[in-house]
TrEMBL record:
<dbReference type="InterPro" id="IPR002881">
    <property type="entry name" value="DUF58"/>
</dbReference>
<protein>
    <recommendedName>
        <fullName>DUF58 domain-containing protein</fullName>
    </recommendedName>
</protein>
<feature type="domain" description="DUF58">
    <location>
        <begin position="50"/>
        <end position="229"/>
    </location>
</feature>
<dbReference type="Pfam" id="PF01882">
    <property type="entry name" value="DUF58"/>
</dbReference>
């Protein structure tokens, strides 16, 4: 049996370096009132879901005779499917995610990590198993797992300009959530979603953008430089680039949307200037629609 004192000591040790992210995610999760995690699917469980008419192939022992006695037909009593499911999260740790166009806006990476952790809180509260893809953190339940997630997300920065998702730790039939600006090479995203679909993994792509990246409010002499410093472009007529940039951004969104549709995933876009609660509700509802 686990020693409660030792467990608490380990938990406090894990939590010590990461109060801001965890506190923010807890606050965000508290603002969302969801009630029970009603997946509304038939299967093994204790909660009554619905009655349905007896059909060919059903076993007679499944008939609810009390309900059937009140009508001319036979009915089965179905229970809601409640087996805990695995949800794998991937948060882009690339340097591009460190961008924020103003002091009052969060960096894209911070918003992505906060959303991922708040979503994990809601899922763990509902009995789901949650893990991090490509972070050697398999899906588990419980408060200690939440602290592990917070620790990993708080240290998710990469030396690469753009992150690349993977499906190495995803279990067949599980679900996944990818959070990124998706502005880098699209090939790794194609590969990850194709591999996920082959495993029967469905999920959600959430593209997170700064409002400035959406509007491109530049004109005149402008120097564009990537967050890692590896890319740099200077122009005297930034306004002339606006149309081409917006066309390419729209094309990238359309490509992500089509890729999600073809692989059975869902796509959404969130701007860091918008309320995080709206994005969290959308993410949670998207996972509900996923099954």
């Amino acid at each position: 049996m686990t020693d409660p004192a030792a467990l608490r000591a380990r938990a406090e040790g894990l939590a010590a370096p990461l109060p801001p992210l965890l506190a923010g995610a807890r606050h965000l999760a508290r603002t969302v009132a969801l009630g029970s995690h009603g997946r509304r699917r038939p299967g093994q469980g204790d909660e009554f879901w619905q009655y349905r008419p007896f059909a060919g192939g059903d076993e007679a022992r499944m008939i609810d005779w009390r309900r059937s006695g009140r009508s001319d037909g036979h009915f089965l009593r179905q229970k809601e499917w409640q087996a805990a499911q695995s949800v794998m999260l991937w948060v882009d740790g690339g340097r591009s995610m460190a961008f924020a166009s103003g002091d009052r806006l969060p960096a894209k990476g911070h918003r992505a990590s906060e959303l991922a952790l708040a979503l994990a809180i809601l899922l763990l509260r509902a009995g789901e198993r949650v893990g991090l893809a490509d972070r050697d953190l398999p899906p588990r339940t419980g408060e200690l797992q939440l602290l592990r997630l917070a620790g990993a997300l708080g240290d998710a920065e990469s030396a690469a300009e753009y992150g690349a998702p993977g499906t190495r730790d995803m279990r067949a039939g599980s679900r996944a959530v990818f959070l990124s600006d998706f502005l880098g090479d699209i090939a790794p995203v194609h590969a990850a979603l194709t591999a996920a679909a082959d495993k029967g993994v469905s999920g959600v792509l959430m593209q997170i953008l700064d409002p400035q990246e959406e509007a491109f409010p530049f004109d005149g002499r402008t120097i564009f430089e990537s967050m890692g410093g590896g890319l740099r472009h200077e122009t005297l007529k930034a306004g002339d680039l606006r149309g081409r940039y917006l066309d390419r951004l729209a094309a990238r969104k359309a490509e992500l949307r089509d890729l999600a549709r073809l692989t059975g995933w869902q796509y959404g876009c969130h701007h860091t200037g918008d309320a995080a609660q709206t994005a969290l509700l959308w993410l949670y509802a998207a996972l509900e629609r996923d099954h």
